[in-house]
Design goal:
The protein is mostly helical and 556 residues long. Helix content is 75%, strand content 0%. The chain starts with 29 loop residues before the first helix and ends with a helix. The C terminus is likely disordered.
Length: 556
């Protein structure tokens, strides 16, 4: 029996919260519905925009701070290391202390940390503030969804949930669109200034228009903090390993292996604590049930596939010298695709449409990847417009149905499983993205070495084609030096640089093909397994249904 911390209002049936930790559904006039929707967009963008701006402008930030690629990668890792474990406690905090305190405290801390960014200059302090912002920023994603649920009457709550969970996906294309203007006005401080402004606006908005009250129950226990103390560092270490592995290379960095051992030990200890608790924070037996393992695999693969855009396309364009200013028009197309994907998912929502929506999402993402497998060094950002639009529609379409399917499995077991589901979904999306980047990055580097070896094997002095190309390059270098020997050396260096660039392009083409075939293979495999299960299921059920009544003797 739950212990209520405050008297429960006398709500009508249609106004009651779905479960503790969510808001009630009172009647709102149209202008208030619109205000809730606007705040939902603002808060959700605030939660994801800070890290998206750093990711989009990471090469420039590295240069201005004097960081190597491996050191600069810690700016992204620090945010995710804190963000990934935040949901372990945030949902129970909402249940016990209410949404209003959760909203104001979460956004207040985030705004304060964003302002603090403007006054710290060293890489060490910047990393610390990025980590704290990652924990506080997790509240913004949740708040965006909670506010969007108030944007329409309750009968539309499922469609609003689809839109609410999809809002966070808008942050990345928006960051690429506004980055050129912010960087043109100054250095990397402008990114943090914009992030601070967004956080302060969001804080003011949630104070002015509060969420309706919900049910507050006593749910936090001391052992919850023990589980958090064990699992949070384990997850943070895994994030660090995945972020640094393909940058420093897995086999050349011994501390990655030791870090994995520590993470596994801490994670195993947390699971043992939860397994033997009377009221666990995480339902370990349920998490490792066949149904949830299948759900985890699907959610992980879907998120992994979206890296074709975030790693593959962006990485190739950066290799070819393109930055945020050149890629901004393409990300406008991507933004339109994400919006259309979210809208299509919400408008076509229905109990029987969830699986077809996920299948369509995988098909669109796989098609986009396969369309990009024959790129050349002459391609420019807008040459990717069609493929990336299709991929963006698929990426915008999958999150809502995925969450609704998970909630259906969760609520069938009881509200005490909700924390486990939210943590599970958060982990699959975070680690799906990180593992996708790590796997594709490692594969791209491996293929680049192979292609580079093949190309440079043909760049032998004495080859007629090579000599002709060197003679064509030498006059172009006359403005740099008049020494013929130096001209030949510079020409040979440029030719080798061109070979490396072509090797990278071919490697990225391999990445696109690899991603596309994974998507189509996963889709076909899922369809085949579903068909087989439907054929075999009657065979398993027939003995139980045909056994007939139990004889009187056996009943005795």
């Amino acid at each position: 029996m739950s212990e209520y911390l405050r008297p429960v209002p006398d709500w009508e049936e249609h106004e009651k919260p779905a479960l503790p930790g969510t808001a009630s559904y009172p009647w709102h006039p149209p202008h208030r519905h619109a205000a809730y929707a606007a705040i939902a967009v603002l808060v959700a963008l605030t939660g994801g925009l800070g890290n998206a701006l750093v990711s989009a402008n990471l090469p420039q930030i590295q240069g201005q701070l004097g960081l190597s690629p491996a050191e600069g990668n810690w700016l992204l890792a620090a945010y995710l290391m804190a963000n990934v474990s935040a949901n372990l406690l945030l949902f129970k905090f909402r249940q016990q202390y209410g949404m209003r305190l959760f909203a104001e405290l979460g956004l207040g801390i985030y705004a304060a940390l964003a302002v603090l960014h403007l006054f710290v200059g060293s890489p060490a302090t910047t990393l610390a503030v990025r980590a704290a912002s990652g924990f506080a920023g997790a509240a913004c994603t949740t708040l965006g969804t909670l506010y969007m649920l108030q944007a329409m009457p309750r009968r539309y709550v499922a469609r609003m949930l689809i839109i609410g969970v999809g809002l966070a996906q808008l942050a990345v294309p928006v960051a690429w669109l506004i980055s050129p203007t912010l960087m043109d006005l100054g250095q990397w401080h402008n990114l943090y200034l914009f992030e601070a402004g967004m956080a302060l606006c969001s804080f003011a908005a949630v104070v002015v228009l509060k969420l309706p009250p919900g049910i507050q129950t006593r749910v936090l226990e001391r052992k919850d903090f023990l589980t958090f103390a064990l699992l949070a560092p384990a997850l943070a270490i895994l994030v660090a390993v995945l972020c640094q592995g393909y940058v420093r290379w897995w086999l050349d960095t011994p501390w990655l292996g030791w870090a994995l051992c520590v993470a596994l030990a801490l994670g195993w200890a947390a699971f043992l604590v939860e397994h033997h608790r009377e009221r666990p924070l995480l339902q370990i037996r349920w998490i490792f049930s066949p149904t949830m393992l299948q759900f985890m695999l699907g959610a992980f693969v879907l998120r992994l596939l979206t890296n074709e855009q975030s790693y593959g396309m962006v990485g190739l364009m950066r290799t070819l010298g393109m930055g945020p200013e050149q890629m901004a028009p393409l990300f406008a197309v991507i933004l339109a695709g994400v919006v259309i994907g979210i809208a299509a998912s919400a408008l076509t929502f229905g109990p029987k449409s969830l699986i077809p929506q996920l299948a369509a999402s995988v098909l669109l993402i796989g098609t986009a990847a396969l369309l990009d497998q024959h790129r050349t060094s002459m391609d420019r950002p807008m040459d990717f417009a069609l493929s990336q639009f299709l991929g963006a529609v698929g990426a915008g379409m999958f999150m809502g149905p995925l969450m609704l399917i998970g909630f259906r499995h969760t609520l069938a077991r009881g509200t005490d499983h909700v924390v486990s589901f939210i943590v599970l979904l958060s982990l699959t999306q975070t680690f799906g993205g990180l593992a996708g980047s790590a796997a594709l990055g490692s594969y791209q580097l491996h293929r680049e070495h192979l292609h580079s070896a093949q190309l440079t094997a043909h760049l032998q002095r004495g080859d007629a084609v090579v000599e002709q190309r060197l003679r064509q390059l030498q006059p172009l270098l006359a403005t740099q030096t008049t020494d013929p020997l130096q001209q030949q050396a510079l020409a040979a260096a440029q030719l080798a640089q061109g070979a490396r660039r072509e090797a990278n392009v071919r490697a990225y083409n391999d990445v696109f093909a690899f991603s596309g075939w994974i998507a189509l293979g996963y889709l076909l495999g899922s369809v085949a397994l579903t068909w087989i299960w439907r054929r075999l299921r009657p065979l398993f059920l027939r003995p139980a249904t045909s056994a007939g009544p139990v004889p009187e003797v056996e009943r005795r």
